[in-house]
Specification:
The chain contains ten helices and ten strands. 25% of the residues are buried. Pfam families: HTH_1, LysR_substrate.
Length: 295
Amino acid sequence: MSRLNYHHLAYFWHVAKLGNLTKAAEQLHVSQSALSSQISQLEHTMGVQLFLRQGRKLVLTEIGQTTFSYAEEIFRKGSELESLLQHGEPAEKRAVRIGMLATMSRNFIESFVEPLIQQPNIKYSLHARGQARLLTELANHQLDIALSNIDVGGNDNNLWHCQLLARQPVAIIGHPGLGLAPAFSHDYAQQNWILPDEDSPIRSAFDGFCALHQFKPRIVAEADDMAMLRLLTRDSNAIAVIPEVVVKDELQSGKLKRYLVLPNIYENFYAVTVQRHFPNQIVGDLLLDALKTHR
């Protein structure tokens, strides 16, 4: 017989979602002492500590966060089953939480989520984060998938599953009429340049290209955000080193022109996931769609 009391687990789940015992007690219409007692019984029965107190706030321990991720899936599935038995249909829309590196191309993000747009039975949410926070929230099961242009390796604590989805060519882009040749020459030295930030893999590759050609660009602006690179390129007379996907609308409309595709320089787009006991099927479908699209 299982020692797990699902009534106690439900109380824990509500408190974990709110992070506040008082608010959870009010929503559940029980006293704080009764709610605290139920959670203490769960901790005692399972032999773990689920919460730490930080002032008035309850913070999940590492095992508490794992327990919460299980509880989320258990009670979501229970709600779906109840609705299916009573009404013949799921209670809520299926949901997927997508994290994205804050500095990567929004055009690529849009193409990734496009299969969801016409599916009214699926709710999706997008969360822009730095790389470290992306991985932390993914490991804590606060996100179902993370999109990044930085490769992620595994380690003993978090075995990341990192899938290369696409490689986008990087080009020299600028306004039409600059008279630049489609082959690299020192005519490009007469131009002002907008470049990715020095920490960018694209910038490192471009610096290598410049060293090979003994070329020093006249840099007037740098940015680590693809949306900002797009705006600077569009609204200035400088030329930029930028993935074509970032400015695809401007290239199609003729507002910007591709002068030269840089050889062997790409922006890579990765999907990062972690192993889950209850995999989200939407994530699997999205990955298959993305791999077919960018094959």
